[in-house]
Amino acid sequence: MSFRFACKDGRAHLVVGPDNNVVDLEKASDGHFTSEPIDAFRRWDEVRGFAASCTDPGVPCSTDDLNAPSPWPSQVFGIGLNYRKHAEETGAKIPDTPLTFTKFPSSIGNPNADVPVAGPAVDWEVELVVVISKGGRDINESDAWDNVAGVCVGQDISDRALQLATVPPQFNLGKSRENYSPFGPWLVDAKDLASKDKLEVVCTLNGTEVQRETTDDLIFTVPQIISYLSGIVQLLPGDVIFTGTPGGVGAARKPPVFLKKGDVLESWLTGISHTVNRCV
Length: 280
Description:
By secondary structure, the chain is of the alpha+beta class. The protein folds into two domains: 4-67, no CATH class; 76-278, Fumarylacetoacetate hydrolase, domain 2, CATH 3.90.850.10. The protein is 14% helix and 30% strand.
């Protein structure tokens, strides 16, 4: 069974049992592991082995009290137009290579973080998020999943007006306002995850479903994304990749629908993780 990893008060934790109790990794291992989440990603195989033998029942914890599982990554990548149905709804050409942008690390939000509505055209984008373990350069597609620590759900919140404020448009700043990259609440270890290439993402807005798709609609799969990125940059432990959003975003609706104060976004990676983000 895949183990779960979380971050609380800036410290690495395991998530155990049906009640989702948390176990402080450094304390439970008598200092064999540090409290630093990034260190856990560097030593992911060891952490997996420890988790398999850990009998600590943990302590209760609300998901509201968890940080993002990788709270201070060196690099955060986003992939645009990566679901066929999303590309079709925008009228865009299917890309030949991954349309990559950055989400600056200061945009990382806790899984249930409040989302500031910074303008008239702030949009939702539910996504499969993957976090890198050992990483490296020039990773083969066949080895890509071995370089993933775990997966969870996230929201690539997007200020569309800021995205389109320049000619030509640039995505980075419009994706990087405060709490515009919430994800979690924990990672599920990718090693033994069933159907890892056909996971389901779902998003509701105020209780109404606005997005639902499986990741077999991805134009570029997780292994293809990792191989592509690592052929250009070095992927580092704890790096975060937002892998793209399916159809159903607000900007593509007729008429467009954007987030407003008081809205509630709920996001699922079905059977794996769930987040709630309130708009303020």
